[in-house]
Design a protein that fits this description.
Helix 3 (127-138) packs parallel to helix 4 (167-180). The chain folds into 2 domains: 8-56; 67-265, Rossmann fold (3-Layer(aba) Sandwich), CATH 3.40.50.10090. It has a 6-stranded mixed sheet, sandwiched between helices. Strands 4-3-2-1-5 form a 5-stranded antiparallel sheet, with no helix packed on it. Strands 6-15 form a two-stranded antiparallel sheet. With 268 residues, the protein is of the alpha/beta class. 33% of the residues lie in helices and 22% in strands. The chain has helices at residues 58-83, 100-113, 127-138, 167-180, 198-204, 221-231, 240-244, and strands at 8-11, 20-27, 33-39, 45-49, 53-55, 88-89, 93-97, 117-121, 142-146, 188-191, 208-209, 237-238, 255-256, 259-260, 264-265.
């Protein structure tokens, strides 16, 4: 079957472990071709030869997306009443996401949670250029910088920035954001995606980042960080351990130095 942009596929050589969508097809001069793939549930970008990918049936697509929606609905039902209050102001969130589908889902999630969030779909390579003007415009308390990432050679060259697809872009975005806000007292930052260069992101100025274990993280993980900081009182310190308890992969997926919450009591 011919593979086209927008198709849902799996990689045969990886035992069909992750569901991807084809972002684009690149044809080489020698007649071969490969596809740039983006994870549907996990925040990973990869490439694969056309002959190594296989389309998936509609049932598989529906079941995968259904599981994600069920997870979101369960979390929304559990947390909404807990967060509802008319005498406080939750922290304001600015979320930059390199994936359009994830941007749209994130916006819906924040809205259902009753959180004050602005979500912008900005390609990873444009995020460093645009972040300062967006910070000036929206004046957020929390900045989420994410999209897709991956190690090009998994398991080696952990400290080589050129071994990561988008970590360099995330790092530069964090640095630009820190020019606007020097500390987490003004702006709490999460940055990263699947297998991102965790140590460099923290060194650049992020308070939380992925991925210490160079593993895959779920679509919802950055949203949990944003939510946790937004709804925690400004007098409460939110540790990486507290964040890790609420995500599937724990501290191997997301960690950091921690930050104070951003919820404020409204004086009437």
């Amino acid at each position: 079957m011919k593979i086209r942009k927008g198709d849902f596929v799996v990689r045969i050589s990886y035992k069909k472990d992750i569901l991807f969508i084809v972002d684009r097809i690149i044809k080489l001069k020698n007649g071969s071709a490969y596809a740039i793939l983006k994870g549907v549930v996990v925040r990973i970008e990869a490439d694969a030869p056309i002959e190594d990918i296989e389309k998936v049936d509609t049932k598989t697509i529906i079941n995968t997306q259904k599981k994600t929606e069920e997870l979101l609905i369960k979390r929304i039902k559990h947390k909404t009443e807990e967060h509802r209050s008319y005498s406080v102001r939750m922290g304001k969130i600015l979320h930059l996401d390199g994936d359009k589908r994830y941007s749209e889902k994130s916006a819906r999630y924040y809205k259902k949670m009753g959180l004050d969030a602005i979500v912008k779909n900005i390609p990873e390579h444009k995020q460093p250029i645009m972040v300062r003007q967006l910070l000036e415009k929206y004046q957020p308390d929390i900045l989420i910088i994410t999209g897709h990432d991956a190690m090009l050679k998994k398991g080696i060259n952990y400290t080589n920035i050129y071994n990561y697809r988008n970590s360099g872009n995330f790092i530069n975005t964090v640095k630009e954001a820190r020019k606007w806000a020097k500390s987490s007292n003004k702006l709490v930052i999460f940055a990263g995606a699947c297998q991102s260069f965790f140590e460099a992101l923290i060194e650049a100025g992020a308070d939380f980042a992925s991925s210490p274990g160079r593993i895959l993280i779920d679509f919802i993980d950055p949203l949990i960080v944003a939510e946790k900081i937004a709804v925690s009182d400004k007098s409460k310190f939110v540790s990486s351990y507290e964040i890790a308890r609420e995500i599937k992969e724990g501290e191997k997926g997301i960690s950091g130095i921690g930050a104070m919450g951003k919820k404020k009591v409204i004086i009437m």
